[in-house]
Amino acid sequence: MNEKRQFVAKTLHGLEGILASELKAIGAENVEKQRRMVNFTGTTEMLYRANFQVRTATRILLPIYNFKARNEEELYGIAKKFDWTSIMDLSHKFAVDATVNSSVFTHSHYIALKLKDAIADHFRDRFGKRPFVDPKNPHIQIQIHISDQDCTILLDSSGESLHKRGYRLHQDVAPINEVLAAGLILLSGWDGTTPFIDPMCGSGTLLIEAALIAKGMAPGIFRKHFAFENWLNFEKETFEKVFNDESYERDIDPIILGGDISGRAIEIAQSNLKDAGIQKLIQVKKQSIFDFFPPEGPGTVITNPPYGERLKKDQITVFYKQLGDTFKQRYQGYNIWVLSGNSEALKNFGLHASNPTTLFNGPIECKYQSYSIYSGSKKAKYKEG
Ligand SMILES: C[S@@+](CC[C@H](N)C(=O)[O-])C[C@H]1O[C@@H](n2cnc3c(N)ncnc32)[C@H](O)[C@@H]1O
């Protein structure tokens, strides 16, 4: 359908600007940043593209019904009147989630129950039967957002969060979320033409996302399923067009290198690269960062060092100081981007930080900032200039 509708793309704190740019780049209109989400308008094809191509959205929602309610009974009554047969039929299993920010409505779980009853009773009144609820594997995922008395019902077009790309089957202790990894790379401005290094790569998430970005490969290519494929109005041909569109892929051979001191992490990274079918693009090696020598700059490092939960304070201080010294001595011409949940330890880097951003790695508040390592001293550079 070519009719344009409004959509909501959800994301992680701090990635709203990058997500807005990604949506504009695929042709979304009326792109508007909010807290941890971006509103936009577009056709059904745009909805499919946002799910398939955009790297920094966690899910894409379609608002279907806006109304005001003063209490739970009123909410139930209004929601029951909506024509739910336009969304699903009796064979669909469904689930409801509620997000409530209101002094009137306080229990999100109860709101979700009320909406679930309203949908079930709508069907029972009309057909004498009701569709089943399945919170784990629903065909149709419904959300209700309430702000004071303003209620919005939305359909979740993604299903499982979009950070679950489908390539990562193996994990080490602290893998970074794929959406966050892609966000870090896009925030750094790395364009695939210079070397990319993660010398503490763990399960390899940053390396894989870097390869996908450099080659212009859609993150959705590995996903087996999107919730919109269950919708009554699913347009198979439109989705096939989006799925088979290779126009944004790039024929370049990026240099992407990873290392980790843990042999187990490297084994996991290797099987993840294999799953993603991009093992030829990336080289990983069991190696300490202190034994690693990068190719000549310019280049980009993006890395997520240990935050030191399992180390004594003075050990982590020394570790971060050694990291800073290593970057200063060996990475001339590189931009080093570091995500760390230990901002105290970061102060021991001994390098001037730029572009500080606050991001969250799961529940952990982190600093993400960059360090430019000049080739030669600043003074020499100034003289040359
Ligand atoms: C927070 S984890 C990185 C997780 C990674 N970003 C991912 O998505 O899986 C930090 C990693 O640093 C590695 N590490 C610790 N000390 C190291 C060193 N001296 N050299 C290289 N890697 C090191 C750990 O083995 C661990 O895998």
Key words describing this protein structure:
single chain, 385 residues, alpha/beta, VC0802-like, Rossmann fold, 7-stranded mixed sheet, 32% helix, elongated, disordered C terminus, binds S-adenosylmethionine
How would you portray this structure in words?
It is a single chain. This protein is an alpha/beta fold and 385 residues long. It folds into two domains: 5-156, VC0802-like (2-Layer Sandwich); 178-218 and 250-384, Rossmann fold (3-Layer(aba) Sandwich), CATH 3.40.50. It is 32% helix and 24% strand. It contains eleven helices and 14 strands. The chain has helices at 16-25, 44-53, 72-81, 108-127, 178-188, 205-215, 236-244, 263-275, 313-330, 343-346, 378-384; strands at 5-10, 29-34, 37-42, 59-68, 94-101, 140-147, 150-156, 196-198, 256-260, 282-286, 299-303, 334-340, 354-361, 364-372. It has a seven-stranded mixed sheet with strand order 2-3-1-4-7-6-5, covered by helices on one side. A seven-stranded mixed sheet has the order 10-9-8-11-12-14-13, with helices on one face. β9, α8 and β10 form a beta-alpha-beta unit. α2 crosses α7 (236-244) and α5 (178-188) packs across α6 (205-215). The radius of gyration is 24 Å and the shape is elongated. Mean pLDDT is 93; it is low at 377-385. Residues 172, 174-176, 199-203, 205-206, 259-262, 265, 288-290, 304-306 line the site of S-adenosylmethionine.
